[in-house]
Amino acid sequence: MANKVIYAVYEDPEQLKEGARKLVSNGIKVKDTWSPFPIHGIDPIIGVKRTRLAIVAFMFGITGTCLALLGIWYMNIFDWPMNIGGKPSQALYKNLPAFIPVTFEFTVLCAAHGMSITYLIRNNTLPGMPARNPDPRSTDDKFIIEVRTADNHGHSAEAITGLLRTTPVFEINERQY
Amino acid sequence: MNFSFSKRAPKVLMGVIALGAAATLVGIMGDHTDHHQRTWASLLVNAFFFLGITLGALFFYSLQNATETAWSVLVKRVFEGIMGFLPIGAIAMIVVLAAGSLGLHHIYHWMDTKLYDPSDPEHYDAIIAGKEAFLNQRFFWVRTIAYLATFILFARWFRSKSLEMDRMSGDTLVRTHLLVYRRSALFLVFFAVFSSILAWDWLMSIDAHWFSTLYGWYAFSGMWVSAMISGVILVLYLKRKGYLPQVNNSHIQDMGKWVFAISFLWSYLYFSQFMLIWYSNIPEEVTYFQTRINEHPGLMWGTFFINFAVPMVLLMSRDAKRNPRFLIGVGSVIFVGHWLDVNMMVMPGALGHHFHGIGLLEIGMFVTFLGAFIYTVLNTLTKAPLTPVNHPYLEESVHHQI
After folding, report:
1. Directed axis angle between helix A157-165 and helix A13-25, to 10°?
2. Domain residues for B67?
3. What single-letter DSSP state applies at residue B382?
4. A4 in helix, strand or coil?
């Protein structure tokens, strides 16, 4: 039996949530949902794992802090110590207040750029990447649930579509893959 | 549902107040400074700190109204409760200032009229005399009364409209809501000016030779963060007692975010003031930090560490902001940190070399004020339903989810 992927198309995010709840309560795993905008409260229904973006952001930020301090230390303390405003540069910690603005800015710069790039990579939206969404209408006015039979060995494709038909679904498409 | 005191709460609070008062009395007996300056300075610290909390709450409350924020509608009564302490804080503040005016203490050196008399070269102080147009007692009192009257009038008006809205519906409700919205915006205009100038008047003028243009915002951000901590701790306490059943994790997390964010605002302003003065190293400016760094380095750096590093590290994650015990613990630490910060603003200027750090007197006075503050706030909460009965955004606030 070939593996099938089922796309249930809805016209309204609330209807999609209703459909997703019904599937999950019957023990069917929802692979993903596709929608033109984020659907509020869908994550806990289909069991999306907690995002790790916050940790990544922190890593980018702390990298920026370290790089900035390292750079300032090398330039202003180690390689070419300068006496600015009567403050001899003998140690990083003695002049730290003067270096904080640059460190802060570089932290923000690294966090912001790092997160932008991470976002584009995770969404497969770097320039030139092929679009991944199964149905272009999901970028306009349709809301789509994706279910794979490979994830749901206890349920046949017919049983899943049958269950979906009991929800206010707009259309159901099946595809082999 | 109104809040009602448990049987134990008033007894505990009275015990706290009595304990604080006893410690204060013992402390006053050990206060050998001229004119009991240390006692007066300590009273000023606590009067300003707790009055500041009510002002921060009043500001946040009108900010929520003026921006028509929906999520905070469920907790607005808590902030009205905190505003209940405003008149008492104002009276304490007036007592300290009036005592200064009457010469009972010399915290405000500039109040001495001899400084302004050029024919008395022994006492004449050219720098302070140059500020006479602003720093004279008559104008000082006009300003002080203007701030306090404005704050109290607005607070009372907001409270009465909020209670009236509980009995309204339909068009009248929306009209009142829009009126509150406009008046809140008006209040913010007043507050923007007054919050800055009152910090100059009541705190910065202690070091009358010194000035910092950032001082007003710095003092204000301290008030604001203390108010947010008071708010979140109060909400968590009420929830634990079974009140505010509709307040969910998202509301708690949002309030935690405010504590986190305003801690950063405070750190930013504190550091901006410090860094510029430290860097330029101009004698007339740097004296302020020299006294503090040379004589009280522990308090100076400790305060900054508590108020910046503690919230940054401990409140950064989402889980921390949703964990009531953790939030109460960290909040309490920062709360004390901001009280220490007010000490840092007042004490070295008011006592000079006679300031030897925080002692029994300061702690006793703090505990007394804290007990009275909590009692007054809880007592205000008993007087109205904890959840607003009617508000255009109530439904949205109940379904708040982030």
Report:
1. 130
2. 8-382
3. T
4. strand
Average pLDDT over residues A87-94: 80
**Is B352 part of a structural domain of the chain?**
yes
Of residues A8 and B1, the one with the higher pLDDT is A8
How many CA atoms, within 13 angstroms, populate the side-chain half-sphere of residue B79?
26
B276-312 pLDDT, tens digit per residue, is 999 888 988 999 999 999 999 999 999 999 999 999 9
Q: Which residues of A touch B271 (CB under 8 A)?
A: 97, 100
CA torsion B126-B129-B131-B132 (nearest 10°) is -170
* Residue type at position B370: L
Closest-CA distance, B381 to chain A, in angstroms, reads 33
- Candidates B363, B401, B285; CA nearest to B46 is B363
Question: Does residue A136 belong to the interface with chain B, where contact is any CB pair within 8 Å?
Answer: no
Nearest partner of B310 among B342, B345, B264, judged by Cα = B264
Comparing B82-91, B315-324, B328-337, B363-372, which segment has the lowest mean pLDDT? B315-324
Residues of A in contact with B281 (CB under 8 A): 85-87
**Closest chain A residue to B278, measured at CA:** A97
List, by residue range, all CATH 3.30.70 domains of chain A.
4-50+141-176
The single residue listed with the structure tokens 């009108």 is B62
From the number of C-beta atoms within 10 Å of its C-beta (0-12, 13-18, 19+), residue B283 rates as exposed
Residue B1 lies in a domain: no
Tell me how many degrees the CA angle B63-B64-B65 measures, rounded to the nearest 5. 90
Q: What is the mean pLDDT of residues B245-260?
A: 94
Q: How many independent structural domains does chain B possess?
A: 1
The whole-model pTM stands at 0.91
CA distance B132 to B402: 53
Nearest to A34 by CA among A63, A6, A65, A70: A6
Which residues in chain A have Cβ-Cβ distances shorter than 8 Å to B274? Answer: 97
Instruction: Tell me if B387 is assigned to some domain.
Output: no
The C-alpha atoms of residue A42 and residue A152 are separated, in whole angstroms, by 20
Rounded CA separation A148/B83 (Å): 57
- Hunting for tokens 């720093």 — which residue is that? B135
Residues of B with CB under 8 A from a CB of A: 271, 274-275, 278-281, 316-318, 401
Q: Measured between CB atoms, does A154 come within 8 Å of chain B?
A: no
Q: Is B313 within a domain?
A: yes
Q: Looking at chain A, which residue has its C-alpha nearest residue B312?
A: A58
Partner residue opposite A40 with nearest CB, options B274, B278, B401:
B401
CB contact (8 A) between residue A97 and residue B274: yes
Q: Which pLDDT tens digit goes with each residue over B66-77?
A: 999 999 999 999
The ipTM estimated for the assembled molecules is 0.79
Model confidence at A86: pLDDT above 80: no
> Which of B278, B301, B315, B402 would best serve as a mutation to test chain A binding (most A beta carbons within 10 A)?
B278
CATH of domain A4-50+141-176: 3.30.70
Q: Are B262 and B218 in contact (CB under 8 A)?
A: no
- Cβ of B322: how many Cβ atoms within 10 Å? 15
DSSP lists the bridge partners of residue A8 as A145, A172
